Protein backbone atom coordinates (compact mmCIF):
# COMPACT_ATOMS: atom_id res chain seq x y z
CA UNK A 1 0.00 0.00 0.00
CA UNK A 2 0.98 3.67 -0.43
CA UNK A 3 1.60 5.71 2.72
CA UNK A 4 2.82 9.21 3.55
CA UNK A 5 5.91 8.71 5.73
CA UNK A 6 8.63 10.78 7.34
CA UNK A 7 11.81 9.40 8.91
CA UNK A 8 13.13 12.61 10.50
CA UNK A 9 11.86 15.88 11.95
CA UNK A 10 11.93 19.26 10.25
CA UNK A 11 13.68 22.21 11.91
CA UNK A 12 12.40 24.89 9.53
CA UNK A 13 8.86 23.74 8.62
CA UNK A 14 10.06 22.66 5.18
CA UNK A 15 7.78 19.64 4.97
CA UNK A 16 8.94 18.82 1.43
CA UNK A 17 12.30 17.69 2.83
CA UNK A 18 10.82 14.94 4.97
CA UNK A 19 7.44 13.82 3.59
CA UNK A 20 7.77 10.84 1.24
CA UNK A 21 5.30 8.39 -0.28
CA UNK A 22 6.42 4.83 0.40
CA UNK A 23 5.10 1.36 -0.35
CA UNK A 24 4.40 -0.63 2.81
CA UNK A 25 2.69 -3.97 3.51
CA UNK A 26 -1.05 -3.88 4.11
CA UNK A 27 -1.50 -4.46 7.87
CA UNK A 28 -2.93 -7.70 9.23
CA UNK A 29 -5.47 -7.39 12.06
CA UNK A 30 -4.62 -8.37 15.60
CA UNK A 31 -7.38 -10.24 17.41
CA UNK A 32 -9.12 -7.04 18.62
CA UNK A 33 -8.45 -4.92 15.53
CA UNK A 34 -10.27 -3.66 12.48
CA UNK A 35 -8.54 -3.06 9.12
CA UNK A 36 -10.14 -0.46 6.87
CA UNK A 37 -9.40 1.06 3.50
CA UNK A 38 -8.97 4.80 4.04
CA UNK A 39 -11.28 6.82 1.83
CA UNK A 40 -10.70 10.19 3.49
CA UNK A 41 -8.50 11.60 6.25
CA UNK A 42 -8.33 15.06 7.82
CA UNK A 43 -5.41 17.32 8.72
CA UNK A 44 -4.91 18.56 12.27
CA UNK A 45 -2.33 20.88 13.77
CA UNK A 46 -0.76 18.00 15.64
CA UNK A 47 0.47 16.75 12.25
CA UNK A 48 2.73 19.81 12.20
CA UNK A 49 3.83 19.30 15.81
CA UNK A 50 4.70 15.72 14.90
CA UNK A 51 6.85 16.73 11.95
CA UNK A 52 8.64 19.25 14.15
CA UNK A 53 9.22 16.70 16.90
CA UNK A 54 7.93 19.35 19.30
CA UNK A 55 6.45 19.47 21.86
CA UNK A 56 6.72 15.67 21.72
CA UNK A 57 9.38 13.54 20.06
CA UNK A 58 6.95 11.18 18.38
CA UNK A 59 7.99 7.72 17.07
CA UNK A 60 9.89 7.50 13.77
CA UNK A 61 9.36 6.50 11.03
CA UNK A 62 5.93 8.08 11.22
CA UNK A 63 2.57 8.09 9.46
CA UNK A 64 0.41 11.00 10.61
CA UNK A 65 -3.39 11.24 10.50
CA UNK A 66 -5.69 11.03 13.51
CA UNK A 67 -8.98 11.34 11.64
CA UNK A 68 -9.69 8.69 9.02
CA UNK A 69 -12.85 7.25 7.51
CA UNK A 70 -13.22 4.25 5.25
CA UNK A 71 -14.60 0.80 4.60
CA UNK A 72 -13.72 -2.28 6.67
CA UNK A 73 -11.74 -4.94 4.78
CA UNK A 74 -10.78 -7.33 7.61
CA UNK A 75 -11.45 -7.91 11.32
CA UNK A 76 -9.70 -9.83 14.08
CA UNK A 77 -11.12 -12.97 15.70
CA UNK A 78 -12.28 -11.14 18.83
CA UNK A 79 -14.07 -8.28 17.04
CA UNK A 80 -17.79 -8.48 17.84
CA UNK A 81 -19.65 -5.44 16.51
CA UNK A 82 -17.82 -4.45 13.32
CA UNK A 83 -17.91 -6.51 10.12
CA UNK A 84 -16.30 -6.41 6.70
CA UNK A 85 -18.05 -3.82 4.53
CA UNK A 86 -19.01 -1.47 7.38
CA UNK A 87 -18.35 2.23 6.91
CA UNK A 88 -16.29 3.41 9.89
CA UNK A 89 -14.45 6.41 11.27
CA UNK A 90 -11.62 6.59 13.79
CA UNK A 91 -11.91 7.68 17.41
CA UNK A 92 -8.32 8.77 17.91
CA UNK A 93 -8.31 8.95 21.72
CA UNK A 94 -6.55 5.72 22.73
CA UNK A 95 -6.64 4.82 26.41
CA UNK A 96 -6.09 1.79 28.62
CA UNK A 97 -9.84 1.31 29.31
CA UNK A 98 -9.21 -0.25 32.74
CA UNK A 99 -7.84 2.54 34.99
CA UNK A 100 -10.01 4.56 37.40
CA UNK A 101 -10.35 7.45 34.97
CA UNK A 102 -11.35 5.21 32.07
CA UNK A 103 -13.87 3.17 34.04
CA UNK A 104 -15.30 6.43 35.38
CA UNK A 105 -16.05 7.53 31.82
CA UNK A 106 -13.08 9.90 31.60
CA UNK A 107 -10.81 8.14 29.14
CA UNK A 108 -9.50 11.56 28.12
CA UNK A 109 -7.87 11.74 31.58
CA UNK A 110 -6.18 8.34 31.28
CA UNK A 111 -2.49 8.64 32.18
CA UNK A 112 -1.70 6.18 29.40
CA UNK A 113 -3.77 8.05 26.82
CA UNK A 114 -2.24 8.55 23.40
CA UNK A 115 -3.53 10.28 20.28
CA UNK A 116 -3.58 7.92 17.34
CA UNK A 117 -1.72 9.23 14.31
CA UNK A 118 0.20 11.70 16.46
CA UNK A 119 1.82 9.89 19.38
CA UNK A 120 1.47 6.34 18.05
CA UNK A 121 3.90 4.43 15.92
CA UNK A 122 6.12 3.74 14.29
CA UNK A 123 4.14 3.80 11.02
CA UNK A 124 0.65 4.01 12.48
CA UNK A 125 -1.77 6.69 11.33
CA UNK A 126 -4.40 7.54 8.75
CA UNK A 127 -2.42 8.97 5.81
CA UNK A 128 -2.20 5.66 3.98
CA UNK A 129 -4.36 3.39 1.87
CA UNK A 130 -5.11 0.90 4.67
CA UNK A 131 -4.89 1.32 8.41
CA UNK A 132 -5.76 -0.57 11.59
CA UNK A 133 -7.34 0.28 14.94
CA UNK A 134 -8.79 -1.58 17.93
CA UNK A 135 -12.52 -2.15 17.56
CA UNK A 136 -13.18 0.21 20.47
CA UNK A 137 -11.49 3.01 18.50
CA UNK A 138 -13.76 2.92 15.46
CA UNK A 139 -17.39 3.95 15.08
CA UNK A 140 -19.86 3.05 12.38
CA UNK A 141 -20.70 6.05 10.21
CA UNK A 142 -24.47 6.66 10.26
CA UNK A 143 -26.56 6.97 7.12
CA UNK A 144 -26.53 10.45 5.66
CA UNK A 145 -22.95 11.17 6.73
CA UNK A 146 -20.28 10.90 4.02
CA UNK A 147 -16.72 9.64 4.44
CA UNK A 148 -15.47 13.20 3.97
CA UNK A 149 -17.84 14.62 6.56
CA UNK A 150 -16.95 11.87 9.04
CA UNK A 151 -13.20 12.34 8.64
CA UNK A 152 -13.51 16.12 8.97
CA UNK A 153 -15.52 15.72 12.19
CA UNK A 154 -13.82 12.86 14.00
CA UNK A 155 -11.45 14.66 16.39
CA UNK A 156 -12.46 18.27 15.76
CA UNK A 157 -16.19 17.95 16.36
CA UNK A 158 -15.54 15.70 19.36
CA UNK A 159 -13.13 18.26 20.83
CA UNK A 160 -15.64 21.08 20.34
CA UNK A 161 -18.51 19.04 21.80
CA UNK A 162 -16.53 18.04 24.87
CA UNK A 163 -15.43 21.64 25.43
CA UNK A 164 -18.91 23.14 25.31
CA UNK A 165 -21.18 20.31 26.41
CA UNK A 166 -18.98 18.03 28.50
CA UNK A 167 -16.91 20.70 30.25
CA UNK A 168 -18.60 24.11 30.05
CA UNK A 169 -22.10 22.55 30.17
CA UNK A 170 -23.65 25.30 28.07
CA UNK A 171 -27.30 26.17 28.63
CA UNK A 172 -29.96 27.73 26.38
CA UNK A 173 -29.95 31.53 26.49
CA UNK A 174 -26.26 31.90 27.32
CA UNK A 175 -24.01 34.31 25.45
CA UNK A 176 -21.08 32.33 24.02
CA UNK A 177 -17.90 33.72 22.49
CA UNK A 178 -16.29 31.38 19.94
CA UNK A 179 -12.67 32.36 19.36
CA UNK A 180 -11.29 31.46 15.93
CA UNK A 181 -14.68 30.65 14.46
CA UNK A 182 -13.21 29.86 11.04
CA UNK A 183 -11.05 26.99 12.30
CA UNK A 184 -12.16 23.37 12.39
CA UNK A 185 -13.02 23.42 16.10
CA UNK A 186 -14.41 26.95 15.84
CA UNK A 187 -16.78 26.11 13.00
CA UNK A 188 -18.17 23.22 15.02
CA UNK A 189 -18.24 25.37 18.18
CA UNK A 190 -20.57 27.84 16.47
CA UNK A 191 -22.94 25.08 15.40
CA UNK A 192 -23.00 23.36 18.80
CA UNK A 193 -23.72 26.60 20.66
CA UNK A 194 -26.59 27.37 18.28
CA UNK A 195 -27.91 23.81 18.63
CA UNK A 196 -28.17 24.48 22.37
CA UNK A 197 -30.04 27.74 21.88
CA UNK A 198 -27.21 30.13 22.72
CA UNK A 199 -26.42 33.55 21.28
CA UNK A 200 -23.05 33.37 19.54
CA UNK A 201 -20.34 35.94 18.93
CA UNK A 202 -17.57 34.49 16.74
CA UNK A 203 -14.14 35.94 16.05
CA UNK A 204 -12.13 35.48 12.87
CA UNK A 205 -9.93 37.34 10.41
CA UNK A 206 -11.73 39.96 8.26
CA UNK A 207 -12.11 37.76 5.17
CA UNK A 208 -13.87 35.02 7.17
CA UNK A 209 -16.41 36.99 9.21
CA UNK A 210 -19.23 36.62 6.71
CA UNK A 211 -18.75 32.84 6.61
CA UNK A 212 -19.05 32.67 10.40
CA UNK A 213 -22.38 34.47 10.13
CA UNK A 214 -23.52 32.11 7.38
CA UNK A 215 -22.64 29.20 9.65
CA UNK A 216 -24.97 30.50 12.36
CA UNK A 217 -23.05 33.04 14.44
CA UNK A 218 -25.21 36.00 15.49
CA UNK A 219 -22.26 38.40 15.44
CA UNK A 220 -18.72 38.25 14.04
CA UNK A 221 -15.70 40.29 15.14
CA UNK A 222 -12.21 40.70 13.68
CA UNK A 223 -9.84 39.40 16.39
CA UNK A 224 -6.81 40.77 14.58
CA UNK A 225 -7.70 44.25 15.76
CA UNK A 226 -5.94 45.29 18.96
CA UNK A 227 -9.24 46.41 20.49
CA UNK A 228 -11.35 43.48 19.28
CA UNK A 229 -12.43 42.75 22.84
CA UNK A 230 -13.96 46.22 23.15
CA UNK A 231 -16.18 45.49 20.17
CA UNK A 232 -17.25 42.20 21.76
CA UNK A 233 -18.06 44.01 25.01
CA UNK A 234 -20.09 46.61 23.12
CA UNK A 235 -22.11 43.87 21.40
CA UNK A 236 -22.68 42.03 24.68
CA UNK A 237 -24.10 45.15 26.30
CA UNK A 238 -26.77 45.43 23.61
CA UNK A 239 -27.99 41.84 23.89
CA UNK A 240 -30.99 41.47 26.22
CA UNK A 241 -30.25 38.95 28.93
CA UNK A 242 -32.98 36.66 30.27
CA UNK A 243 -34.11 37.25 33.84
CA UNK A 244 -32.21 40.54 34.10
CA UNK A 245 -28.74 39.00 33.90
CA UNK A 246 -25.54 41.02 33.51
CA UNK A 247 -24.74 41.84 29.84
CA UNK A 248 -21.43 39.95 29.61
CA UNK A 249 -20.08 36.75 28.08
CA UNK A 250 -21.15 33.55 29.86
CA UNK A 251 -18.86 31.06 28.10
CA UNK A 252 -15.68 31.57 26.06
CA UNK A 253 -14.55 28.81 23.69
CA UNK A 254 -10.76 29.29 23.59
CA UNK A 255 -8.02 27.62 21.56
CA UNK A 256 -5.94 30.61 20.43
CA UNK A 257 -4.04 31.59 23.60
CA UNK A 258 -1.19 34.05 23.31
CA UNK A 259 -1.94 37.74 23.64
CA UNK A 260 -5.72 37.22 23.54
CA UNK A 261 -5.94 35.49 26.93
CA UNK A 262 -6.25 38.43 29.33
CA UNK A 263 -8.57 40.27 26.96
CA UNK A 264 -10.82 37.23 26.99
CA UNK A 265 -10.86 37.14 30.80
CA UNK A 266 -12.04 40.76 30.95
CA UNK A 267 -15.14 39.85 28.91
CA UNK A 268 -16.50 37.12 31.17
CA UNK A 269 -19.56 37.53 33.33
CA UNK A 270 -19.46 36.93 37.10
CA UNK A 271 -19.24 33.16 37.47
CA UNK A 272 -18.47 32.88 33.76
CA UNK A 273 -16.48 30.06 32.19
CA UNK A 274 -13.57 29.92 29.79
CA UNK A 275 -12.81 26.49 28.37
CA UNK A 276 -9.53 26.03 26.53
CA UNK A 277 -7.87 23.44 24.35
CA UNK A 278 -4.62 24.19 22.59
CA UNK A 279 -2.88 27.51 22.03
CA UNK A 280 -2.10 28.06 18.36
CA UNK A 281 -0.65 31.57 18.86
CA UNK A 282 1.36 30.73 21.98
CA UNK A 283 0.96 28.84 25.24
CA UNK A 284 2.97 31.08 27.58
CA UNK A 285 0.10 33.47 28.34
CA UNK A 286 0.28 35.87 31.27
CA UNK A 287 -2.77 36.00 33.53
CA UNK A 288 -4.09 38.91 35.55
CA UNK A 289 -5.44 36.98 38.53
CA UNK A 290 -7.80 39.80 39.50
CA UNK A 291 -10.07 38.89 36.60
CA UNK A 292 -10.37 35.37 37.99
CA UNK A 293 -10.92 35.72 41.73
CA UNK A 294 -12.93 38.96 41.68
CA UNK A 295 -15.58 37.58 39.32
CA UNK A 296 -15.33 33.94 40.32
CA UNK A 297 -14.34 32.84 36.85
CA UNK A 298 -14.11 29.15 35.98
CA UNK A 299 -11.09 28.12 33.90
CA UNK A 300 -11.48 24.67 32.35
CA UNK A 301 -9.02 22.64 30.34
CA UNK A 302 -10.27 20.18 27.74
CA UNK A 303 -8.79 17.50 25.51
CA UNK A 304 -10.72 15.42 22.98
CA UNK A 305 -13.65 13.54 24.53
CA UNK A 306 -15.25 10.13 24.99
CA UNK A 307 -16.40 7.57 22.48
CA UNK A 308 -19.94 8.09 23.74
CA UNK A 309 -19.69 11.81 23.04
CA UNK A 310 -18.49 11.10 19.51
CA UNK A 311 -21.57 8.94 18.98
CA UNK A 312 -23.72 11.88 20.11
CA UNK A 313 -21.90 14.11 17.63
CA UNK A 314 -22.58 11.77 14.73
CA UNK A 315 -26.21 11.43 15.77
CA UNK A 316 -26.69 15.17 15.32
CA UNK A 317 -24.75 15.09 12.06
CA UNK A 318 -27.04 12.36 10.74
CA UNK A 319 -30.02 14.59 11.59
CA UNK A 320 -28.53 17.48 9.63
CA UNK A 321 -28.12 19.68 12.70
CA UNK A 322 -24.32 19.82 12.50
CA UNK A 323 -22.28 19.76 9.31
CA UNK A 324 -18.60 19.52 8.47
CA UNK A 325 -17.06 22.53 6.81
CA UNK A 326 -14.46 21.32 4.31
CA UNK A 327 -12.03 23.86 2.97
CA UNK A 328 -10.11 21.77 0.46
CA UNK A 329 -9.08 18.24 -0.54
CA UNK A 330 -5.57 17.03 -1.41
CA UNK A 331 -3.93 13.81 -2.56
CA UNK A 332 -1.02 12.13 -0.78
CA UNK A 333 1.22 13.59 -3.49
CA UNK A 334 0.11 17.11 -2.56
CA UNK A 335 0.31 16.66 1.21
CA UNK A 336 3.10 19.23 1.53
CA UNK A 337 0.81 21.88 0.04
CA UNK A 338 -1.99 20.83 2.38
CA UNK A 339 0.15 21.17 5.49
CA UNK A 340 1.58 24.50 4.35
CA UNK A 341 -1.94 25.82 3.91
CA UNK A 342 -2.88 24.68 7.40
CA UNK A 343 0.27 26.22 8.87
CA UNK A 344 -0.24 29.61 7.22
CA UNK A 345 -4.02 29.68 7.64
CA UNK A 346 -4.51 32.27 4.89
CA UNK A 347 -7.94 31.89 3.36
CA UNK A 348 -8.53 28.69 5.33
CA UNK A 349 -12.09 28.06 6.51
CA UNK A 350 -12.90 24.61 7.90
CA UNK A 351 -11.02 21.35 7.48
CA UNK A 352 -8.39 20.17 5.01
CA UNK A 353 -8.75 16.59 3.79
CA UNK A 354 -6.15 14.20 2.40
CA UNK A 355 -7.27 11.25 0.26
CA UNK A 356 -4.98 8.30 -0.45
CA UNK A 357 -6.78 7.78 -3.76
CA UNK A 358 -8.12 11.10 -5.01
CA UNK A 359 -10.22 10.50 -8.13
TrEMBL record:
Source taxon at top rank = Archaea
Q: Please name the SMART domains in this protein's record.
A: PKS_ER
What is the protein name given in its UniProt record?
Answer: Acryloyl-coenzyme A reductase
Q: Which Gene3D superfamilies match?
A: Medium-chain alcohol dehydrogenases, catalytic domain, NAD(P)-binding Rossmann-like Domain
Task: State the organism of origin.
Answer: Candidatus Nitrosomarinus catalinensis
Q: Which GO terms describe its molecular function?
A: acryloyl-CoA reductase (NADPH) activity
Keywords per UniProt: NADP, Oxidoreductase
Q: What is its EC number?
A: 1.3.1.84
Task: Identify the residues that the record assigns to the Enoyl reductase (ER) domain, covering every copy.
Answer: 17-354
Top-level EC class = oxidoreductase
**What's one Pfam family here?**
ADH_N
Cross-referenced PANTHER family: QUINONE OXIDOREDUCTASE
